[in-house]
Amino acid sequence: MASAVDAYLLLFLIGVNLVPLTPLEEEQQFPPDGGFQVSLTKSRKRVFPAPHDLKPDPVSEAYGYCNTPNHTEQALEGHSPADYKLLSVQVMIRHGDRYPLYFIPKTRRPAINCTLSTSKSPSHPLLKAFIGHMRQGGRGHWDSTLSSIPRVPNHSACETGELTQTGVVQHLRNGQLLHHAYKRRSFLSSDWSPRQVWVETTSKARTLQSGLAFLYGFLPQFDWSKLTVRHQWSTLFCGSECDCPARGKYLEEEQKRQYRLRVSDAELEKTYAQMAKTLGVPTRQLRAANPVDSLLCHLCHNISFPCVAGGDGGPGDCLTTDQFAVIRRQQLDDEADRRKAGLYRKYAVLAMHPYLNQTANRMERVARDGEAVFSISSAHDVTVAPLLSALGLQEARFPRFAARIVFEMWKSPLAMQKQARKRGGDAKAKDGQLFIRVLYDGEDVTFHTSFCRSRGRQDAPPLCPLNNFLSFVRRDMFSVVNATSYKEACYRRPA
To answer: In the annotation, is 381 catalytic?
Structure first.
């Protein structure tokens, strides 16, 4: 199957330490219940990096990747012209902060407790109630693959890849941001039906737990009996449409590009050799351990970088911030080269079309039935990154912990529909009454997407017609691979 080929190729990437940041895991002020203040102005955490003529500081950029919970989160979801009605919200999230998947040879693992407690930092006003509500999860409906997974992280010494309390708090905040953003829009009434809330996740505990934390922040004390949590077997969320031979071929070309760039980086190779000498291990062994994964955990949790024991049993030499900065700098260089080469974009279009098609189908169903829908897809960096690229957001930063992409569908008020009918006839009025917004980490990126870049915020209304998105998903997105359909793009030999 094509999915097996993808898995092999991506595992190869891990072995040579090419996957950016983390290795692949497998395919206004709110009332007291909110507990934190939200700025509706621009956040310091921009979704687009510095201009190309300004080199970002690798360490400062890495702190942004940590996404440490703070009280000035951006909340531009739910913004539209007056009297527009919000019909659906579909959210793709990356799991929150996690314990490393790889560990540096001959060093101690980071000492982090993954159990949840309101006495630990960071915390959240909803945390205690969230823990209690998760104990009632047996009342919910679960796909069989997910039923035995713990609903909260529960190890006093974190296990490999386990969600931390920071990760839980990140998504409680994210969900609560959307709760307040959409509350004033009267979106999703308190007596919502099971058809109106959709939750899907991969089989990893960190994605399941992140999705539940997000949902609880959005719908505190939700009714378990009305909830079904569904399993997505592929990290691409491609359902029954995963078979696509060309996708693996584009990925193979992309991995070759990554490899060539890495081995040509003399400063990186020198840094790996220095680190390996400090640890007393072969350079190849250190590189295979993907040290940036563990070093990021140290950085995000304010833990000193690891050291080796000295000859007298005392502390010996340590890995340094300068060495970490070199690895991060190379990753940033790789992201820039990846955008320029364009191979990843071709892979991304084929990888994420099934998810985008599902998103489009759900929007059309909501428009037809008139019943509001909220969905959460809890995923990984290897899901969110290609989704950004497929949408034409190649310049956006790599997905940080607890990143979110939000698709909103809006309906114009009746008065505007009548005006549109007068201008262009009934058909145009019907087509023109539905609009889409796309947000990444709380920032409106709609007019940066491929399907709405030609339209501007100065247009009236300052929203993107839904038909632009539907045409993009059904045909236009395949232009980057010189095709007009998913089937043609997948089964025709790449040029």
So the answer is: yes
